[in-house]
Amino acid sequence: MSSVKSTLSTRVSKKLVGLHRWTKIAVMVGTDLIAMPFCFLMAMVLRLGSLDVALAYGKEPYAIVAVVTVCVFAFSGLYQAVIRFIDQTLLKSTGVGLALAMIGAYAVSMFWHDQRLPRTALVIYWFVAFSYMVASRLAIRAFLRRSTGHHLQNKNLIAIYGAGEAGAQLAQAMRVDGKYRPICFFDDKLAMTNHNVAGLKVFHTSRMAEMAQQFGIGLVVLAIPAATPERRRQIMHDAHEAGLEIKTLQGMVELADEKISAKSVREIKLEDLLGREPVPPRVDLFAKCVQGKKVLVTGAGGSIGSELCRQIMAQQPAALYLLDHSEYALYAIEQELQARFPQVSLYPCLGSVCDARIVERLMCDGGIETVYHAAAYKHVPLVEANMAEGIRNNVVGAQVVAAAADKAGVETCVLISTDKAVRPTNIMGASKRIAELIFQAAARKPETATTFCMVRFGNVLGSSGSVVPLFKKQIEQGGPITITHPEIVRYFMLIPEAAQLVIQAGAMAKGGEVFVLDMGDPIKIVDLARTMIEMAGLQEKNADTPNGDIEIHFVGLRPGEKLYEELLIGDGATISEHSRIMRTTEYAFEPAELERLISALEQACASRDDETIREMMRQVVREYAPPVLEENAVVSAAQSRPEIGLATPQPAIMPVQTGLQ
């Protein structure tokens, strides 16, 4: 019998939904014209206490009130709304419109001293008519949703984690959307247990597995936008332990009734679990070197370079020039930027930063005002195995860019460096330290009109050289995840954070400084791997859980790899104009001396002799300490963990004069 009723209601609802729009409006108007006289009659009976007395006023007042009410409903937009998606905002505005109409009628009656109708009946009528309007629309909405959306609701039973304001709004929005069907709340506050929020019961998080099994819940949505990354990790772990998939809200901006919807729910991303809150940019610094400027980005197709381009284009530059030696990478970022920012002039250039003619022509002919030098080889083992080419790209490229910027009179030139340049143990880090020395020497030239500076940061989540894509691929293949050492740690930041740091550094630079982001505490790589395993809904396979899914193998440190990375060479860092960005000045060479040393290094590279190259590296980068092999393990000369990323300073070769106090 119930199945017959369900089938019949489904047919009726589909018939109603399939009606022509004007037919639906006509049905609603006709229904209200019939119902409103009875609403007013009820108000009159409540006021007068007698049905006979109320009927003695004749039909005319009831007809007039009905017509006026329907006109108010039409004016407020009630008939234009789709009943299945009607919201409380429209109901409120209709109620306000009806109240204003009744107040107007009351005022006219008072002005003309009309005693034909009891005025207080109008007040009672507002309550009756508004109750009818709300109840009728909500009843029809519930009928249509139950009948047409039954198949969706059964497949999308969810629980909401967090019975606060965000959770309550999410539950209401989900009822409107129909994609998900909220069943209950979970909350770790004992005071909320067994309470009712937005029509749903709140259970303590300790009962998550029990309730999920009882109600058939397969998904829990995290509705605590202010949750710390540590708490998010714990909630994700608890949800997976209960056999539940977990998602989260897009962000605080969507917590308004008008915006939150089923589309506000998304997968939890790795950056949600970073271990600290993202560092927001300062708007004034962000636009200073970009807005209305002609900007050049080298390595524009890379992970950092492409994000730099996106951030720059959003600030409306006069023109953006892209330089990259990879045809596909350049094509991909050009197509993306043209589609997203068609109003900004875009000039892609295929070529190498080591080609002085191309770089000089770009800067001089383009009238470049700001340069962000992101082109570099950054993969430690590959550069270690290809020393000469790595040095050529990273060192000669920096020389060419700095010289061309000086010659073209560029206003600001920013080098993107790495934490591996601090007391480097590998060729990649040492080559980036030389690039820093080149920019510092360029800043020391008294006749230069260009402000040179460097930006140094740690590993970037999701970039082409980070461990995240590697771990993701290994998980997809069923493991194992390979990690060099159980104690290895790294500083991490998001790709947008890295790009924003680079852009803001140029705005704060006076010449020759190094800027670093306060990235909080470093993260253990093994903890990152375990988090990614959990995010995939899998379990680590080890001695405690032999039936797990993914193993973690430790394979030993690679050539030139350190357990702990550092951010600063010296201990003289100060807070910049941005509270989360530090600036420091480090030792530098006189330009002529540095040029002589680099020339000798280039000759060593031409010999293709690794030991000669390393020896010349040590002459240029005094703190460069190549690793030595001990029983199949690579041991670095700098393995002691530094405090807050600072290291003991080297004897100064030449202090940088920046005019900063």
Task: Describe the protein in words.
Strand 8 (about 295-300), helix 12 and strand 9 (about 320-325) form a beta-alpha-beta unit. The protein folds into three domains: about 1-150, no CATH class; about 150-270, 3-Layer(aba) Sandwich (Rossmann fold), CATH 3.40.50; about 285-465 and about 490-520 and about 565-625, Rossmann fold (3-Layer(aba) Sandwich), CATH 3.40.50. Mean pLDDT is about 80; it is low at about 150-155, about 250-260 and about 630-660. The protein has 22 helices and 24 strands. The chain is an alpha/beta fold. The longest helix is centred in the N-terminal third of the chain and has 29 residues, at about 120-150. Helix content is about 45%, strand content about 15%. The strands form six sheets. The chain has a nine-stranded mixed beta sheet, with helices on both faces. A seven-stranded mixed beta sheet has the order 3-4-2-1-5-6-7, with helices on both faces. The chain has a two-stranded parallel ribbon with strand order 14-17. The protein starts with a helix and ends in a 26-residue tail after the last strand.
